[in-house]
């Protein structure tokens, strides 16, 4: 029996001695594998960080190389027309003729100096230089040499210029104008003194010069939102003389809106259901007759307490001088005692691949006199529609 006990103990000791090194080997092996995987993950993370840094350096280099680069666009349609032979002929004029016909309407300092050398006042938004030439034979107005300086610096900003040709229209509405043509220049990136290589051609008869005005708006381009307007320059084309190059240098002025039509809107207050009914009845526009074959639609936006309700659109209508909509739109509103809202009516002209803003009318408690009166009448006339004409501005 003692021998059997001794044999059993020896067997158990042998088994225990065999199990201990086996389990430790597995533990160390798993630990080593975990360390290897951690090193691989750190290596991959380091490679990704290096690639990201290389991409950022490449982007910075591309931005530096593209600074003050001008790309000339010569496309037909709304963006402009190709360079006519007349423009090449005018560049061959003598220096004496050009200097005699040059009119400087801004600062008289050297145009090649910076904004500080020009001595612009602190409130100035910048200066715009351009040249105009009217040809009687072709009934065309040429706009070239667009250049701006002294613009407010806002980091890596992108600048562009919107050009509009306006013409006065006889009407009972004072200051009513018709927008004949509209273009937008190229976008110049990362440049304190952008030079726009665009040139624009306007078809304009000699009898229409005195009634026409050229409006140029300098804007900060933003592809994700609306462009911020820095200022504008207006030129009355009656100052032009035939076949003479007119060089203008003007400071940017505060932008103003132009009346291009009117719209009949009705407002109805529904305090029980906490809603407002916006009725779009009619609209009068002053667009040229060439747009008669196109369609238009209206978009209604309501802003209340810095919150915008979901906009609504009307059905498309034919673009005629008098557009009949006769549609109503309901918007949710807060308590009547806290109403401090704004209604924005925008009318767009739609094309095959784009849309064009014709004009906008703004109604609300804090707007102009007529819009504020209309809003007060709506508050007083509970559950009764109140209609009134409002000017379309652009």
From TrEMBL:
Work out whether the entry's keyword set contains Transmembrane helix: yes
- UniProt record similarity statement: Belongs to the synaptotagmin family.
User: Any idea what this protein is called?
Assistant: SYT1 protein
Q: Which domain of life is it from?
A: Eukaryota
Q: By which gene is this protein encoded?
A: Syt1_1
One cellular component term (GO) for this entry is: plasma membrane
List the keywords (alphabetical). Answer: Membrane, Transmembrane, Transmembrane helix
Which SUPFAM superfamilies does the entry mention?
A: C2 domain (Calcium/lipid-binding domain, CaLB)
